[in-house]
UniProtKB/TrEMBL annotation:
It holds the Pfam family GST_C. This is Thioredoxin-like protein. One of its GO terms (biological process) is L-phenylalanine catabolic process. Residues 99-227 form the GST C-terminal domain. GO terms for molecular function: glutathione transferase activity; maleylacetoacetate isomerase activity. SUPFAM superfamilies: GST C-terminal domain-like, Thioredoxin-like.
Length: 227
């Protein structure tokens, strides 16, 4: 049964791609969120007060205050998106089970970003590479993004042949794949990875960027444009 809410509190960082996924979805779905900014440059994600909310010490986290006074926390952006989509189904961000191929492709692409592109170059990993292993963490991040975006482009190419043409990652409707992709591309830009190398991906990102939800919710939070 759907819950009634008093408030939905999002713990978010302006330059966090994982938080941007939730911000973009909430703009697309007109979900009223109360933002609480965590400053990663000051390591606020590792403060004891934040660790009490999210023991993983990462953003985003969502605190749900239900009308019944029930209060609970959800961490991990896919879990938060699943919860929000359950309560705010329109517009849907995942094709229905009657379209198994499109649905699987959306999940594949979103997972490519969530599992194979974002985690290996997350800020705490980069810090470790620099501080403990004297490595060049920006070069590492560039390699991770470039590899990941090349794979994403290959899926877009085969998808267009096998599933069909479309403006966005899968077809003509915005999906979770786009919501995961755009902040990742913005993250890549911050370390010098230019998406023009991947023409279909670049076109998809540009289509998404025409939508206010992406400009408002993306990295920087308030309309920081792609170059
Ligand atoms: N799997 C998590 C990843 C969360 C994550 O890595 N968040 C990053 C920002 S995008 C973060 O908080 N980094 C700070 C740190 O690792 O200390 C999710 O999807 O929510």
């Amino acid at each position: 049964m759907a819950l009634n809410f008093r408030a939905l509190h999002l713990y978010t960082a302006p330059l966090s791609g994982c938080s941007a996924r939730i911000r973009i979805a909430s703009h697309l779905k007109s979900i009223p969120l109360t933002y609480h900014t965590i400053d990663i440059s000051k390591s606020e994600q590792s403060s004891s007060s934040y660790l009490a909310i999210n023991p993983n010490g990462r953003v985003p986290s969502l605190i749900v205050e239900a009308s019944s006074n029930e209060r609970f926390t959800i961490t991990q952006s896919p879990a938060i998106l699943d919860f929000l989509s359950g309560h705010f189904p329109e517009p849907p961000l995942l094709p229905g089970t009657e379209r198994p191929r499109e649905r699987a492709r959306v999940m594949e692409l979103a997972s490519l970003v969530a599992c194979d592109i974002q985690p290996p170059q997350n800020s705490s990993i980069r810090k470790k590479i620099t501080q403990d292993f004297s490595g060049d963490s920006e070069a590492w991040a560039r390699w991770v993004y470039e590899r990941g975006f090349s794979v994403y482009e290959t899926f877009l190419e085969t998808g267009r042949k096998e599933i069909g043409e479309g403006k966005y990652s899968v077809g003509d409707a915005i999906s979770l794949a786009d919501i995961f992709l755009v902040p990742a591309v913005q993250g890549g830009l911050r370390v010098g990875v230019n998406p023009v190398k991947w023409p279909i991906l670049n076109q998809v990102v540009r289509e998404c960027w025409k939508l206010e939800a992406f400009r408002k919710g993306g990295l920087g939070g308030h309309g920081k444009l792609l170059p």
